[in-house]
Amino acid sequence: MANHRAFTGRHMAWVLIGGFAVVIAVNVLMASLAVSSFHGTVVDNSYAASQNYNAWLTRAKATAALGWQVEVRRAAGGWVEITAPRVPESAAITAAAERPLGPREATQLAFVPLGEGRWRSTQALAPGRWRVRLAIRAQGQQWAGQSDLS
């Protein structure tokens, strides 16, 4: 017959203390990770941003009505390449690239035509994740879109 020690109140106290210690440690870790990766506010004034909502919808409908299919990808060396077969070669393409997570890092990109509906950025992006917001202007028309690059 095995020799069993009795489970006492002291044992239960250590079980509770250990359980709460694990929960508190995980909460502290998750809170510190959340705070360190948050850039700040998305908009400074939610009410003012909400007043532009209908204008944003109108622009989105106009963008969709153009029918331009734009594909954004990262090429070797960190260059950003755009393929947009229906966009006129005379189009002016600009972009704002920013990191979606971590410390805020942002850069403006300009593009030069490569021909056959393709453009390449004039500067390369550093490795990592980027969110690219494109603006295309051609023949009095405007297109706006967003793409994530890894």
Topology of helices and strands:
Blueprint: H1 9-36, H2 46-50, H3 53-66, E1 71-74, E2 80-83, E3 92-98, E4 106-115, E5 118-121, E6 130-138, E7 141-149
Antiparallel strand pairs: 1-2, 2-5, 3-4, 3-6, 4-5, 6-7
Structure description:
This protein is of the alpha+beta class and 150 residues long. The protein folds into two domains: 8-38; 54-149, Immunoglobulins (Immunoglobulin-like), CATH 2.60.40.10. Helix content is 31%, strand content 31%. It has three helices and seven strands; from the N terminus they run H-H-H-E-E-E-E-E-E-E. It has a seven-stranded antiparallel β-sheet with strand order 1-2-5-4-3-6-7. The longest helix has 28 residues, at 9-36.
Care to give the gist of this entry?
The chain is α+β, with helices and mostly antiparallel strands and 150 residues long. The chain is built from three helices and seven strands.
**Oligomer designation:** single chain
Beta fraction: 25-35%
Name the CATH superfamily classification of the largest domain.
Answer: Immunoglobulins
Number of helices: 3
Shape: elongated
Mean pLDDT: 88
Rounded to an integer, what's the Rg over CA atoms? 26 Å
**Would you tell me the structural class of the helices and strands?**
alpha+beta
Order of helices and strands: HHHEEEEEEE
Low-confidence stretches: none
Top-tier CATH class of the largest domain: Mainly Beta
Q: At CATH's second level, what is the architecture of the largest domain?
A: Sandwich
Indicate how many domains the architecture comprises: 2
Give the N-terminus to C-terminus distance in angstroms. 62 Å
Strand line-up of the largest beta sheet: 1-2-5-4-3-6-7
Look up the CATH topology of the largest domain.
Immunoglobulin-like
Write down how many β-strands occur, each being a DSSP E stretch of 2 or more residues. 7
* Relative helix content: 25-40%
Biggest sheet descriptor: 7 strands, antiparallel
